[in-house]
Amino acid sequence: MTTLQTRPAPVTSIPPRVVARTGLYALLAANAAVVAWFFVQAGFASNPLIVFGRLAGLYGALLMAFQLLLVARMPWLDRRIGMDRLTSWHRRTGFGILWTLLTHAVFITFGYAEASSMDPVNQLVNLAETTEGVLRAIVALALIVVVGAVSGRWARRRLAYETWHFIHLYTYVAVVLAFTHQVAVGTTFTSSPAATTYWYTVWGVALGSVVLGRMVLPLWRNLRHRLRVSAVVPESDDVVSVYVTGRDLDRLPARAGQFFLWRFLTKDRWWQANPFSLSAAPDGRTLRLTAKAAGAGSAALRHIKPGTRVFAEGPYGAFTTLHRSRPQSVLIAGGVGVTPIRALLEDLTGHAVVIYRVSSDRDAVLYDELCDLALTKGAELHLVTGSIVPDKLAPRELARLVPDIGDRDVFLCGPPGMMTAVLRSLGDLGVPKRQIHFERFSLAG
Fold first, then answer.
1. CA-CA distances (angstroms) from residue 87 to 61, 79, 187, 247, 342?
2. Which domains does the chain have, with CATH numbers?
3. Is this structure's pTM higher than 0.70?
């Protein structure tokens, strides 16, 4: 195969992911310090249980505001951190909220019970009946406990995604109730005009981010671009490509490797959004997605008519060349995970090695396109077929296919089991984590 000479892509000195992650940690730490300062300035109650309970409640409220920022799907964060990692942070932060607010409720209840000589149950009932905002806080905590319970791994594996998502939406109700409780009885919130301004600013920014990222930006982009299906092309018996056109697509900030939440506005599917990656690098005129029939939503794509209106949310994802750290790369795809890999190959500069893992030749979706791209780009292409045992992407096999793999960026996309195995192999080969790029395309919130 003839190798074309291409100019190596610029590499980043500090990974964008590190910049964004450090910024988020610094933001949270700075606000935690400000909360502690306002808490001290407001003075302490005589009962240490109440003191600790109030502080736990304040940090629970701060984590709720931080959680809203994580699920807002703001483009700057999403492009640098990736939605799968934001989802992981979202999960950990959610359980942090649950435990801090439970601590708040228990310590406050026992603290007031100790001061009034009432038992904790009667004390809680008394607070709910006599103190403004406490009943709303109890309802908010109950909702958070339910959401936390259904978000546990045991429950999550047994619930349909639609059921889990519907229950999860009640978190927004809990957030509103908790905020009104804080406004009504929070002594730190009302201790000074500065404290009040600070809390309103924190919650205003958090809620504003959600409205902007989840509502305003998608609506504005879809009104501007007016997306429609231009063609539906079967790639195999169970794989189909959908071409989408619209206005001013050259101004849509989409990159190869990213995905959209696609909502095709037909009578029976307008309410359902599915995440599909771009299977070709955006060219300013057309967007293409390629999907395998794995459920009702993806199977129905084959029957969509040209001209159908499309509502797309995105682009999302950090699986792009923005995160390159080396001039040369390895692209590893499994099954239909080849779609973002094929788009990345089109976008990459520098020498690339493509490894495509499938069970058999007939499962190699878009393989002809990969061959043409590899020839044009001067890339090496390896089609690896066969059963999953023995592991044909084990460390020894990867080192044989790409002897200098430790000096390359690695982009990986495929089924979860394959990705886990390849990540283990890359670790055994000593490939630095900074050079490994993958995304599981989970959705935060």
1. 19, 14, 33, 32, 25
2. 16-220 (1.20.120), 226-316 (2.40.30.10), 321-438 (3.40.50.80)
3. yes
